[in-house]
Amino acid sequence: MSSPANAPAPAVPTAASNNWRRALSMLASLAILALALHALAGEFSGHGVRAIKEAFRAIDSLRIALAFLLGLASYACLVGFDAIGLRRNAAKVKPVRLILTAFLANAVGHTLGFAALTGGAVRLRGYGAAGLSLADIGQVVLMSTLGFVFGAWVLLACALMFEPAPAALLLPLSEDAIRFAGGAVAIAFLGLLMLVGRDGRTLRFREHALWLPDRRTVLSVTALSVVELALAGGALYVLLAPAIPAGSGTSFVGFVGLYLVAVLAGLVSSVPAGIGVFEWSLLKLLPSVAPASLLAAALAYRITYYALPLVLATVLGGFGAARGPVAQSAGALRTAWLAIRPWLPHVIALAAFVLGAALILDGTLPKPQHRLSHAPLPLIETSQLLASLGGVGLLLIGQGLQRRSHSAWALALGVCILLPLPSWLRGGHWLLALAPPLVALALWAARREFYRQGALLDEAWSWRWLRNLGLVLIAAIWLLFFAYSHVEYRNELWWEFLVSGNAPRALRAMLLVSVAVIAFGLARLLHAARTALPAAGAAELDAIRPILAQAEDSQAHLALTGDKALLVDPQQRGLLMIQRYGGSLISMGDPIGPPEVARELIWRFREEADRLGVRPVFYQVGEQYWQTYLDLGLTLVKLGEEALVPLGDFNLQGPNRADLRQAWNRGKRSGLSFRMVPAEQVAPILPALEDISDDWLELKSGEEKGFSLGSFDEAYLQRLPVALIEHEGRIVAFANVWNATNGRELSIDLMRHASDAPKGTMDFMFAELLLWGREHGFERFSLGMAPLSGLAQHRLAGRWNRFANLIARHGERFYGFVGLRRFKAKFDPIWRTRYLAAPAGMHLPAALLDVTRLISLDPRRHDDGERLVARFPSSAPAQGEGGAEAAAAAIPAAASTRAATPS
User: Fold this and answer.
1) What is the DSSP letter of 544?
2) How far is CA 505 from CA 365, 366, 382, 470, in A?
3) What DSSP state is assigned to residue 304?
4) What percent of the chain shows pLDDT beyond 90?
5) pTM of this prediction exceeds 0.90
6) Mean pLDDT across the chain, nearest whole number?
7) CA 42 to CA 276: how far, in whole Å?
């Protein structure tokens, strides 16, 4: 198992391929379920639902209770795997927390599928709150996975050796050959025991490593796993035993082997809980059992082994949430609550999803006549549609509950309060009518856990949730046709309204469900991006002047542009410049303020992103707080390097600065002059500066940018000094100056010239600014960032580095990556690395795209807080002859100095 700490950051080129793989995996799961359900339907000639119902009623209540107890005993063994994993890592977790976390992790993992991932997420929250590291939790998950593998290994060997007859029905082998294969499997396991030795062993394959525990631990988890699988198989065997013919020769040992094969088939299919695949495998492995009896037993098994433990988990969660004041003094109860709280929204979301699926599936089933006689026909028809609509609503907002969305919580609570009456009036089972109030009670008890703001349509859907939604819809459509396979279809079914008209009622309900899903999907596709956060006003910008006065990075002056919101320390000691776009909350640079304040602001920013339901993104950050960003679970990718020119001994002498020196001398001879205008004297010259700016934008065919650089805004320009170049008494160029008040760093933002300015005007301004900074005691001058520079070129470099180098090499014709770096290198600068810190995986390319679009927004184009209009940046000017002038002009203007856009 590869170590998470050493794993390379996922790269942008692989994110699209990962999405395609996830999409193909989702489609494969849906196809497998459809094929399995089609095969199941082929086992019945007609009236399949009626036969299954009769077989289900024939199951003794005592057997159902015994199956539930055996299932709970199986879950107790699963808890034992976590205990062994924690003991091997010498991690101390209170017993109550261990039992609750392990039980709920297995309940969620068994229901959703991919138990190592879904159950691992629950363990991460439960054990992480107890102080366990990610590596410790990973070992627990690995121990649980290895336990199942070792137990299945041994049971499969025993089944092949002692009960070869069932396997002979599936394999083209004789019983003796199957016994021999079972012996080979058993010998392989003994070989594994010899391989791991007394102290365990780590097996390596390329960059991956798999840790195997010592021999004693392997034997312990194997024995526990054998017992657990025997108990789980026994729970189904108890339900199915009356339907197994006496002369079939299927003993309990043989049945456990068959059960294991069916479980493995369900796991390989990647369908949650192996729905459909598990049942179809049992039908093929037990041909002597009547299909209706087998499916009825499988249904009872799923209720006792999957649904009831999940309900129990929800009840425990609701009990913990409503613990009351007594929890303050009851140690065990408080420990239970602290163990439950981190993953309570996940359990409630799963319960809501299961309830929604049950309501939709129930809407397709025929209802007994006696259940429908208590209500008028219009009320029955309306209740049918409302219950199905409520079910699909719970499916669609379930992921919002998982992500602690307050909007999803409010909608789910309302739906669950309103559902019981329609569910009962349409003739549904009383248990299904009782379930919504229970979920509503859990939602109300855990209301404080759903705190994230934001619209539901803004929530990004995961592939797993989309797959589960598709599985429910496929199952509902199949069940509709399976339940009414004996009904001849005709157009009149759509508008037949009869108390006994179950088929048309189910058709209309399924149509409503389909329309609701399509409408929700279209609304998400057409929904606009999130509105921007309100920008800081003039009073707020004046209040942060003391904070900016202590900033050592001149980039802090971006707070004055007026297009960003500010996250300010309560004691007014530091701030973060932030803005929201798309699915990201983006911070411009590192926090401004003392280190202890900055780290606290980083965590506050992460909490704010979590509250809003968006991903946290830090753009153009340095190396000072990289450990804090990693602690947040973010990935750092290198954007480029910022050039810092030392000013202590700066001059225009030497061969490296010959071009700049010649431009400066040429400007002097042509009558160019330089002067610095204080901020309080900028207002009178604003009309002239605006003419130059408009002329420059028209010349470059560009648009104003925002966020990571300023735009021509009168209020912004009057907050900072402005450098002017005049020719014959007329202003021909200007640049607003970022002069860190502490006197350490000098830089510029806007740097624009008139179209008729003498050649070399911008080079002249550049030289004068450097000389002015030296004379006024500044330590360094920031030339801005050279994007995609300084990246590792080694063949073993990370995928992001290789991809970025490819863009830098082949994108030179569109953006002067190499030329810009070469121009800045002539000043012998000190290079300061700039990074993007964002969540890894599919979030990384989305974060890059959100940052690019945010920078491309014209901050002047907005309407009372409505979403800004996005425009992508034009390419930087080409650097041909007179490269110094072109490069200098490109530095502040074409998103190359302040905004190294990652597009």
Assistant:
1) T
2) 10, 9, 10, 22
3) I
4) 6
5) no
6) 75
7) 13
Instruction: Output the DSSP codes for 755-777.
Output: TTSPTTHHHHHHHHHHHHHHHTT
Is 865 a residue whose pLDDT tops 60?
no
φ, ψ at 832 (rounded to 5°): -115, 120
Q: In whole angstroms, what is the distance from residue 292 CA to residue 730 CA?
A: 94
Rounded Cα distance between 702 and 689, Å, is: 17
Note the pLDDT of residue 888: 34
CB 580 within 8 Å of CB 614: yes
296's CB contacts (< 8 A; 6+ apart) are 52, 53, 55, 56, 58, 59
Confidence tier at 591 by pLDDT (50, 70, 90): very high
Amino acid at 374: H
Q: Are 499 and 372 in contact (CB under 8 A)?
A: yes
Pairwise CA distance, residues 193 & 188, whole Å = 9
Residue with tokens 């699209």: 16
- Tokens 């199949």: give the residue: 478
Q: Return d(Cα 54, Cα 831) in angstroms, integer.
A: 78
One-letter amino acid of 273: A
What 8-state DSSP symbol labels residue 649?
T
Residue 457 clears pLDDT 90, i.e. is over it: no
Calpha distance 22→117 (Å, rounded)? 14
CA 331 to chain centre: 35
Judge whether 67 and 305 are in contact, CB under 8 Å.
yes
pLDDT of residue 511: 82
Pick the more confident residue, 339 or 663.
663
Sequential DSSP letters for 384-443: HHHHHHHHHHHHHHHHHHHTTBHHHHHHHHHHHHHSHHHHHHTT--HHHHHHHHHHHHHH
Give the separation between CA 383 and CA 381, rounded to whole angstroms: 5
Give φ, ψ of 625 to 5 degrees.
Answer: -115, 25
Alpha carbon separation from 608 to 341, 580, 618 (Å, rounded): 20, 11, 13
Other C-beta atoms lying within 10 Å of the C-beta of residue 99 = 18
Apex CA 605: angle with CA 119 and CA 712, to 5°?
Answer: 135
Helix then strand count (H, E) for the chain reads 34, 13
Q: What amino acid is encoded at 825 in this protein? A: A
Apex CA 813: angle with CA 807 and CA 816, to 5°?
75
Residues 517, 522, 523, 529: is their CA dihedral positive or negative?
Answer: positive
Percentage of the residues of the chain whose pLDDT score is greater than 70: 72
Question: pLDDT of 778-810, one tens digit each?
Answer: 888 888 876 655 444 444 444 545 454 444 444
- 875 within 8 A of 815, measured Cβ to Cβ: yes
Would you say residue 886 has pLDDT above 80? no
Is pLDDT above 50 for 85? yes
pLDDT computed for residue 741 by the predictor: 56
- Give the model's confidence band at 24: pLDDT under 50 very low, under 70 low, under 90 confident, else very high: confident
d(CA 231, CA 225): 10
Please state the φ and ψ torsions of residue 404, each to the nearest 5 degrees.
65, 30
Count the residues in the chain. Answer: 903
